Amino acid sequence: MTVTSRSTCRICESPRLQLLIDYGAMPLAGGFLSPEKAASAPTYPLRLARCADCTLMQVLDTVSPEDIFSQYSYSSSTTRTLIDHFARMGTELVNLADAKDKLVVEFGCNDGVLLKPLLKAGAKVVGVDPSDVAARASQEQGWPLNRDYFNAESATKVKAQYGAARIVTGNNVFAHTDDLHAIVEGVTTLLEDEGLFVFEVHYQGDLLATVQFDTVYHEHICYYSLTALADLLARHNLHIVEVLKIPIHAGSIRVTAARIGSSWAVKPMVSEMLAAEKLWDIDLFVRQVAVRRDSMLRLVQDLHQAGRRVVAYGAAGRSTIMLNYCGLGADLIEYVLDMSPLRYGKVVPGVQIPIVPPQVFQDNFPHYAIMTAWNYEREIVAKEQPFLTSGGRFIIPLPDIRLVGAV
């Protein structure tokens, strides 16, 4: 088990890193294991810092990719919200860059949730992804896959076989690598001269504004401001030409970049967001995290002492961090409900809370359910009306702790 600790920024190599949160020893957030394996699973230091120069927010302690992805069980197509989002994105990308019958390469393609609508919209597609999830999807759905990490070497292989790409895209995975420059080198290797690099990342501005301490884990190494992304891309002769704020994952941005000197014009939103980022209050975020952590623990302890059954709703990286960092273990939380069959019979690492299918929840409603997947609140509330009408209540942990009852 390999852990390396950084003292300089991953983008600009500045040593001026401000420590924001020390989570202590944490398990891998996506490492859902059998109870037997989880009992001996390792934990790793987890510290969140921010570069005072380029503003990249980053985890200082890096776990080797082999340790992370050997246990990886995330599938993008488990929520209707993501399926619909990427269905729209597929058509939008093809129209944006006139990519019908042109090559679109997605790194971190997971289960093909974007590749399928890209194909439907008329693009030629190739996925680049090292995970078992991608390998199974490629075989079942019939799209080509380079089973590798995305960098200049793997991009060269794709280009040799399929040609240059009109679009390179990588969504919600751009934060997973310790070597950011290797990814962008892969992009510039593969991209046509007038091609576009379009990617989505969780936005640091939303993380700060909604106190998302639960989205910080070893699998997510970096949390981007537009300022940091502009710095990173400029080092590879790319610049941002458009940025859109999107609600996915409780606040993300879709960034479109092109080669400096290409014909793509820069939209006004880019400079507007860069200016707004200078007003962020980082110290306020740090204080609010401590308040949310203490308040969640007190609330659940009080409910437990009053004889109320409490469960959690949603087994994902967020839930692992939320439950571990707040000290909410199996003595307080009965189980975690999840939609993915990949996780049934396993436990949330660290706190050892069992993960169960929806039927367990529906057969015997608890009094309270912590919506650890709070970023899907609207979808979950609409789905779980029987729970609410029976008298059950959701505990929404972020951005402010509140209770949701029958509607």
Features:
seven-stranded mixed beta sheet, single chain, 15 helices, Rossmann fold, alpha/beta, 20 strands, 407 residues, 35% helix
What does this protein look like?
The structure is a single chain. Helices cover 35% and strands 24% of the residues. The protein has 407 residues and is of the alpha/beta class. The protein folds into 2 domains: 76-280, Rossmann fold (3-Layer(aba) Sandwich), CATH 3.40.50.150; 299-404, Rossmann fold, CATH 3.40.50.720. Strand 6, helix 4 (115-120) and strand 7 form a beta-alpha-beta unit.
Task: Please give the CATH architecture of the largest domain.
Answer: 3-Layer(aba) Sandwich
Structural shape? globular
Number of helices, counting only DSSP H or I runs of 4 residues or more: 15
Structural class: alpha/beta
Query: What is the percent of helical residues?
Result: 25-40%
CATH class of the largest domain: Alpha Beta
